[in-house]
Design a protein that fits this description.
The complex is a heterodimer of chains A (464) and B (401). Chain A has 464 residues and is mainly alpha-helical. In chain A, 71% of the residues lie in helices and 5% in strands. Chain B contains 15 helices and two strands. The chains are: A mainly alpha (464), B mainly alpha (401). Chains A and B meet through helix 1, helix 2, helix 3, helix 4 and helix 5 of A and helix 3, helix 4, helix 5, strand 2 and helix 12 of B. The complex binds CIS-heme D hydroxychlorin gamma-spirolactone and protoporphyrin IX containing FE (HEM) (2 copies).
């Protein structure tokens, strides 16, 4: 006998329980994601930025590039450490908060996390080799050691997002009459899912946008404060240009996801747009508030939703009222989050185009303090867009944890003490935030030690 | 042995690897804590910290490995364990965060007097708390206190009971022991003879403590978890216990003789043997009334998981060998030989790519926006190409001359 015939007996998973603290459990999950995901963006994008700068050193032999790459790699390592521990919390929380979700579907999507584990191994191993072997190996070999880090950042996103895409658009299994999960096809469930590709692309780009603008934001601040040496110019141009290239593309990819959602999760789309009744050729509203089946006080654009979701006039879009009210997500949360993301995304894209054109024509930054203030703001704003996007996805899926298959309320743990855990985590994360801020400040204040630094840079630093 | 057993063996292997590798990192934290905050403890603190710097993240991933294999291969058991043992596992998770953060703080900036006290304490205390909590959780499982079901076991006594407490204590002591053995070896390699001596003494002391705790553990098991005790003292279980004990004694002797490199191996064997013994003693159950076979996910899931693990190991093992090879050969040590090379500036042929980038953008955007299926996929790839060519075109070193 190869496989366990007895398995289906237990595949009926654990019996759902009454959990009075479901809301806190959800908030605890949300809080942990909100902490982990910004760090992940640095895991995705920072290694390539550091390596790009190092490659300049390899090409020109100019020590300044190396100094910058080396300093950034210290920041990268510190953020990676924090990403590792916050990710570990998430892994624990999957079981601690949602044991029934894991017990029922672990066999369907768990595989992705198994693969993810190996990505983490590779990332952790090569990031350590990269960061600790400066000067110990030739710079070409050193650069080569960074390649697996970049690849693992990509595969890491791929595998985690495949789980999330599956939760949003589940497939690759059947549920028999006794409510048991059968006929599991894990590869198909995870990688044969049309929702995966737009979601992965969107998140991967978000990594570059967030990491790019956040780093640029810090140097733009310095620029406004008068730190404008050659070192600072490189340190600002590299992340800013990368984020600026990714931002316009993000709009197109966002449109791609929205079209997929129209197909796969009509209720979520209706919540994102505040569409009550099923409508032919629905309008779209900018800003405003959803109440009693319609959007009030918004700027109305006739046929807008029809055009955006289906790319044509007079398309029929399913509204929220197509499902029972207990199957609808909290509309305004989803809608405000979505509008926030799209609004910020548009602003970032505008800022980006401005920078790209100027830089392309003159290899200079836009000469206006306002532009630099814009870049300073772009860092925090891109973080807000990131979290808002996840709120759209996750809250928009509610009340389901697996869309249309398992309710979040059925997934939750029966253990008591969630408020205690939640409060503890809040305290821990606050401490964590302070610690990270402190580390970054310390790293930033370390004096530059460029071996062959040209005088102007030393001067600009002497003024601090 | 059936397919359904293989993940269980991998999980036990993962736990053993986690103890052997990451356990030593926790142990290093224990010595850090015991060195005290004052200037006298400084060499020990600096050295323990520096010794684990490059490897702790990779070592830590073994825990993730154990979690994900468990939840994929034995989902019901995973759900039951996590819900009943929520308290110790949450403590362990918080301990892991605090330790990682304190670690990052130190790497962010060399400690000074104001910060050393607090971060050092957090670092050390969480290094003790986490292995204790994880050991206590294992004790709960091993002594049959985790029933199948959503939080069906007692939230407190499932992990605050004689077996859990003694296993938690053994986990802390073993970590300290492993750490001291490795650190003595590292210090010898770096010719820090003073430190090597200090760690040797600590290793010997902690080795004796661990051994004593192991004996106490057996006595406790006898009254608290009789079924487990019986299986550990007969048949295959007994063989495992004896191998572990023997390897433990050999390790002590090797440390006494200051032969640290072979001691690393025998210490690992002692850990692996006792974990194997636990697995053998629990057979065929994973939780009371739930056999490994009953708990296993479906055939296709197990096959997919095992294929992925096999493929993953092909990449992982050489990478780990590379990393530890570099560490053990002292490549990351302070004062290791450096390569003083100055890359020759090459005249980079700068071909303008702007036209290509714009073409990629326009075609990519049109396809992504308008097309479906394969054409849409091509559109997205072209957009990716736009970003890459854009970077190559706009960020050339010449732009910064
Ligand atoms: C820097 C970040 C950022 C920016 C500028 C944008 N997004 Fe976004 N968006 C995300 C970051 C993000 C995200 C956080 O990464 C999400 C959450 C889930 C995901 O895959 O990406 C997301 C999700 C997400 C979803 C829901 C996916 C789902 O429920 O599965 C849609 C429909 C969009 N986005 C659409 C857009 C549009 C039309 C944008 C253009 C203006 C846009 N996003 C800009
Ligand atoms: C790859 C997997 C996942 C990703 C990337 C992801 C992402 C997120 C993010 C970013 C948020 C919260 C945003 C915020 O409110 O600040 C969130 C919320 C949430 N997630 Fe997920 N999630 C994933 C898997 C899961 C799993 C496995 C569960 C549980 C079974 C889950 C359940 C929830 C719940 C209940 C919320 C809170 C929603 C609310 O507040 O109404 N998610 N998720
Ligand atoms: C259910 C949701 C998630 C879980 C359970 C999870 C788990 C983890 C774990 C355990 C780590 C630590 C890895 C290590 O030890 O090296 C980690 C780090 C990481 N995670 Fe997550 N994660 C989740 C969501 C995400 C999301 C949404 C992404 C992004 C696409 C992501 C990408 C990464 C990356 C790239 C790292 C590497 C560490 C870093 O660079 O910060 N994870 N995650």
């Amino acid at each position: 006998m190869l496989h366990a015939l007895a398995a289906p007996v237990w595949a009926a998973a654990l019996s759902p329980v009454e959990q009075q603290h479901l809301l806190q459990a959800r908030q605890m999950q949300a809080l942990s994601f909100a902490v982990h995901i910004p760090l992940v963006c640095f895991g995705i994008a920072f290694p390539s930025m550091v390596m790009l700068v190092e490659s300049f050193y390899v090409r020109t032999g100019d020590e300044l590039y190396r100094t910058l790459a080396k300093r950034w790699s210290k920041v990268m390592m510190a953020l990676f450490a924090v990403g590792v521990v916050t990710g570990t919390i998430l892994s624990f929380e999957m079981g601690l908060l949602w044991p029934n979700f894991m017990a029922t579907f672990g066999g369907v999507f768990g595989l992705a996390f198994g693969l993810e584990g190996f990505s983490f191994f590779l990332e952790a191993i090569f990031i350590a080799i990269y960061v600790y072997s400066w000067d110990r190996v030739s710079s070409r070999v050193h650069l080569l050691c960074g390649v697996p880090v970049v690849l693992a950042g990509f595969t890491g996103s791929l595998f985690v997002i495949s789980v999330n895409a599956w939760m949003n658009h589940p497939g690759g299994f059947r549920i028999d009459r006794a409510g048991e999960v059968t006929h599991v096809e894990p590869w198909k469930a995870l990688f044969g899912n049309p929702h995966l590709w737009p979601e992965l692309t969107h998140m991967y780009l978000a990594g570059f946008i967030v990491a790019g603008f956040v780093v640029a934001s810090a140097y733009a601040w310095g620029w406004l404060k008068g730190r404008r040496g050659r070192y600072e110019r490189i340190a600002l141009a590299v992340p800013l240009t990368i984020a600026a290239l990714a931002s316009p593309v993000q709009l197109l990819v966002g449109d791609w996801i929205a079209r997929r959602i129209t197909e796969d999760q009509p209720t979520k789309l209706a919540a994102m747009e505040g569409l009550g009744p099923t409508t032919r050729g629905p309008a779209i509203h900018i800003l405003g508030w959803y109440e009693n089946g319609e959007v009030k006080y918004g700027i109305r654009i006739p046929e807008g939703l029809s055009l955006l979701a289906r790319h044509r006039l007079n398309a029929t879009i399913r509204g929220l009222q197509a499902v029972a009210s207990r199957d609808r997500p909290p509309v305004n949360v989803v809608r405000v989050a979505f509008q926030t993301m799209v609004g910020i995304g548009t602003l970032l894209a505008l800022l980006s185009v401005l920078h790209l054109v100027t830089w392309f024509r003159r290899r200079r930054f836009v000469e206006s303090r306002l532009f630099f203030w814009g870049v300073v703001a772009a860092g925090p704003m891109s973080l807000v867009a990131l979290i808002a996007g996840w709120v759209t996805t996750e809250v928009g899926r509610q009340p389901w944890v697996v869309y249309g298959v398992m309710r979040t309320a059925a997934a939750v743990t029966g253990a008591g003490g969630i408020p205690v855990g939640y409060a503890t985590l809040v305290v821990v994360y606050i401490a964590l935030a302070f610690a990270v801020a402190w580390i970054l400040l310390r790293l930033a204040r370390r004096p530059l030690d460029v071996a062959a630094a040209p005088p102007p840079i030393l001067e600009s630093h002497g003024t601090r | 042995m059936a397919l359904a057993d293989v993940p269980a063996i991998l999980i036990l292997g993962g736990i053993a690897a986690y103890i052997v590798f990451a356990g030593a990192d926790f142990g290093a934290g224990l010595w850090y804590l015991l060195a005290g905050p004052g200037p006298r403890g400084r060499p020990i603190r600096d050295f323990t910290y520096h010794a684990m710097a490059a490897v702790w993240e990779a070592n830590h991933v073994w825990l993730i490995f154990v979690l994900v294999v468990t939840w994929t291969a034995y989902p019901v058991a995973f759900g039951s364990i996590m819900s009943t043992l929520a308290v110790p596992l949450f403590i362990a998770a918080v301990g892991i965060i605090m330790r990682g953060t304190a670690y990052a703080l130190r790497s962010g900036a060399p400690p000074d007097r104001e910060t050393e006290g607090v971060t050092g304490f957090v670092f050390g205390a969480s290094s003790v708390l986490t292995p204790f909590a994880l050991g206590a959780a294992i004790g709960g499982i091993a002594s049959g206190r985790v029933p199948v079901g959503n939080a069906k076991g007692d939230l407190i006594t499932s992990w605050l009971n004689p077996t859990s407490i003694v296993i938690g204590a053994i986990a802390v002591a073993t970590s300290g022991y492993l750490a001291a053995v490795y650190l003595a070896g590292d210090a010898t390699r770096e010719r820090e003879l003073e430190l090597a001596r200090a760690f040797r003494v600590r290793a010997l002391a902690m080795g004796v403590v661990s051994g004593a705790l192991a004996v106490v553990g057996l006595i406790v098991l006898r009254s608290d978890a009789r079924a487990l005790f019986d299986k550990l003292t007969s048949g295959a279980g007994l063989v495992a216990v004896l191998v572990s004990a023997l390897a433990g004694v050999v390790t002590l002797a090797l440390v006494w003789a200051a032969r640290y490199e072979p001691a690393r191996g025998s210490a690992a064997l002692a850990v692996a043997a006792i974990i194997a013994g636990w697995g053998l003693a629990q057979r065929p159950d994973i939780l009371p009334g739930l056999t490994v076979h009953e708990a296993a996910a479906g055939h296709s899931t197990l096959v997919a998981l095992l294929i992925s693990i096999a493929a993953g190991l092909v990449i992982l093992v050489p990478s780990l060998v590379l990393l530890f090879g570099m560490v053990l050969r002292g490549r990351f040590d302070e004062g290791a030989s450096t390569v003083a090379e100055q890359p020759a500036p090459r005249g980079t042929p700068s071909r303008p790519l702007a036209g290509l980038a714009i073409a990629l953008l326009l075609v990519g955007a049109a396809l992504t926006f308008l097309a479906e299926g394969v054409l849409l996929a091509i559109g997205v790839v072209l957009l990716g190409g736009f970003v890459v060519t854009g970077v190559v075109e706009l960020l050339r070193p010449e732009a910064f001359d």
